[in-house]
Hints:
The structure holds two protein chains of two kinds.
Chain A: E1 3-7, E2 10-12, E3 18-25, E4 34-39, E5 45-51, E6 60-62, E7 70-75, E8 80-85, E9 94-101, E10 107-110, E11 114-118
Chain B: E1 9-12, E2 18-23, E3 32-37, E4 44-47, E5 61-66, E6 69-74, E7 83-91, E8 97-100, E9 104-108
Parallel strand pairs in B: 1-9
Antiparallel strand pairs in B: 2-6, 3-4, 3-7, 5-6, 7-8, 7-9
Amino acid sequence: EVQLVESGGGLVQPGRSLRLSCTASGFTFGDFAMTWVRQAPGKGLEWVGFIRSKAFGGTTEYAASVKGRFTISRDDFKSIAYLQLNSLKTEDTAVYYCTRDGGNSYGLNWGQGTLVTVSS
Amino acid sequence: SYVLTQPPSVSVAPGQTASITCGGNNIGSKTVHWYQQKPGQAPVLVVYDDSDRPSGIPERFSGSNSGNTATLTISRVEAGDEADYYCQVWDDSDHSNWVFGGGTKLTVL
């Protein structure tokens, strides 16, 4: 059974940093791109970015709203995807989900999400 | 940047058919995916690649995509189908990214 478990969320002050983890099991992690999606309270889904598998260079893409502040990385040995959030703003407050990508850039499986609250 | 437009809400009686649209400029040239999200839960993929269903998703869920509109159709609607539904595409016209529609709240009367 595929499982994705996010962790690392919490309350953080504006301007500070946080690192989220997405621990995967039930599939060959290194074979798949991994994507992060967020959802602000009461709002819709917003794509954050993704990291390709090593077979496709392991490169990353980011939404304009987070580019330069957020960084996605992966550890294929540990089956973990990371989302480093720097220079956090109040508008980054959201539940952050990680997804295993399907072949045509969609979220095949989703974690339960982790809440990040940015507030002073 | 590419924009997807969904109606904020759709209402349907149990046993009837619900159609949720997703509008976008020449969306028929893109591949559309659909997610269901119930309150307090993570999204679940219900249709991918315009009209395919992941394993475990009932045949009552179907999708189509042509011209400027993609449609998620739910036949024989049940109370348990009440949820928010989001369409999504991959867009690389500006830079590579996923684009989500604003979401549609399906209410089962």
